Structures are given as C-alpha cells and as structure tokens.
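re: that complex we talked abt at group meeting.

here r the seqs, copy pasted straight from the sheet so there may be weird spacing, ignore it
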Amino acid sequence: EDQVTQSPEALRLQEGESSSLNCSYTVSGLRGLFWYRQDPGKGPEFLFTLYSAGEEKEKERLKATLTKKESFLHITAPKPEDSATYLCAVPKWTGTASKLTFGTGTRLQVTL
Amino acid sequence: DGGITQSPKYLFRKEGQNVTLSCEQNLNHDAMYWYRQDPGQGLRLIYYSQIVNDFQKGDIAEGYSVSREKKESFPLTVTSAQKNPTAFYLCASSIGTADTQYFGPGTRLTVL
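got the structure back, here u go
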C-alpha cells in the first residue's frame, strides 16, 4: 500500500533556529511530490512541486529537496509567521487519473 | 481574482439530514476534488471529477454524492448514510489530475 510518512509530528523552534521536516514515501513510480502549508482552519496553500531526485526549490526561508525515498523541507532562520502545518503529498497514476496521497503533516511552531 | 470558493464556512446538521456543500472555481480548471480532513489523519479523497458530467469515487465515497453539471461547480452532498460526517471538508481544483491542486478555504461540518 502506498504510504506517505511525515516526521516529526510536531516541532517547536525558536525564531532563527533552522531545522528540517521530513517526508518519506513508498509510492512506486514517483511522478512528483508536493509540499503545502496549512494554517489552522484554512485550506492548504501550495508551496512546491518536485519532480526528480536531486531537484531543489526555494521560496523565502523554505527550501525543498527530493531524493528517491524522501523529501526534506528545510526552514532557515524561521520567523513566527512560519508557524503552520506543513503537508506533503505524492501522486500515483491509477491508469485513468493521478490521485494524491497525503501525509498527516508536521505542525511547526516558531516562538520569539 | 481567480480562486476557489467554498460555502458555507461553518455548517451544522442534525442527524438524519442531508446537506450540500458548495464549491466554485474560476480558474478554468477541468479537474475538481473533494477531500475530508480529520485530526491526526491526512487528507482523504472523497470524489473527483476530470471533466464536466463525469466523476469518480475516491477512497471514502460511501455516504457522499456529487454532481458536475458545470465546469465551475462541484457540489458535495453529505447524506444521512454517512456515519461520521463531522469533519473539515476541502475542495480543490487543477488543470488536470497530474497537475498542482489548489485548495479552497474549507467548510467545517458539525453534526449535532
């Protein structure tokens, strides 16, 4: 069964304290990996798509990387406004459509 | 402004009642989706539609129904057959099912 596992479940950082979130997957025939940010009570906001191992993408304090088995979301010098739940999702082709499998997310809290 | 709207934001239902959640998009996307989000679980796919007048069951379709009569609209009905309907419901759309999905703000349904 296809699985997407995110770790840690929760992470508390002080402002400026860099860290990484992990997303590991067992989907065969990887066709990309998506990262989203979700604030409480709101819909997920798209951050990045990565398509092949070795690919990296950056946006402000966030950098996403991809290997054959996992992806990392690196947060450099985080600020309190980076506090959110970060979700990753992996698509799988069913033969007629591509469907996303989501991880349960990492809840990030950044304090002053 | 292009985007996805969902209404209502909050919905309360008595047991035994059917309710319909609205989802509208003006992004000219062909594909639309409904997900359910529960605490501690990843987003789970209820139904998806790749094109007008066509839709397919996702992983947890029992107790739900949808229609896709217009490209812009993909309403979800939560029927009385859904045993545990209290959840946060998210609508998404994409150009095609292999493309990035963009999410609406969500509807929180509570069964009293």
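couple things i noticed - The CA atoms of residues 83 and 109 of chain A lie 5 Å apart. Chain A has no helices and eleven strands.
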